[in-house]
Design goal:
- With 176 residues, the chain is of the alpha+beta class.
- 35% of the residues lie in helices and 30% in strands.
- It has helices spanning 3-22, 40-63, 77-93, and strands at residues 96-99, 102-114, 117-127, 131-134, 149-159, 162-170.
- The longest helix has 24 residues, at 40-63.
- The relative contact order is 0.15.
Length: 176
Amino acid sequence: MTARTRSVAAATIAIALSSVLGCAPEPAPVPTPTPAFASEEEAFAAAEEVYRAYNDALNESRITDNAVTNPRKYLAGPALESDIDATRYLQEQGLKIVGEGQIVDFAGTTAGLTSGGVEVTAKVCLDVSRTQVLDASGRDVTPHDRPTRLPLDVAFVRSDGALLISSSNLLDGDPC
């Protein structure tokens, strides 16, 4: 093959490659994600449902060691880490919480409903007057000055298609 023939062959290959690469089909459009909830009210209702299910599972776990639903199923991020730390602390101290907490009030405060995610916050008033802290011998060691109602600021996030509690913080000085 002469130098001229090699040049023509190389040019032909380059033109063929550029026309194949230039004519590649356009990528399919990426669908725009839609918000998980149509309105704030819908998001608040879903958050309340999650919190009530979590509270029910938590109460059940205090009654029996064979609870049907693990309360951690409703937790993510800092809320899950706090629960693990609290459980570890109670076990190390030989303490156990018994009784039921009751939700007195649930009020949605914010709902960030974007196509990129969902963040919902709520103020929750939790009545813990029917709970006790017991030591290893079963003696009640509940602090006498413990408030019977706890005002909480609770945050929820959407994770793997489910709304989960991501944080729960005690609101100081906020009566409920």
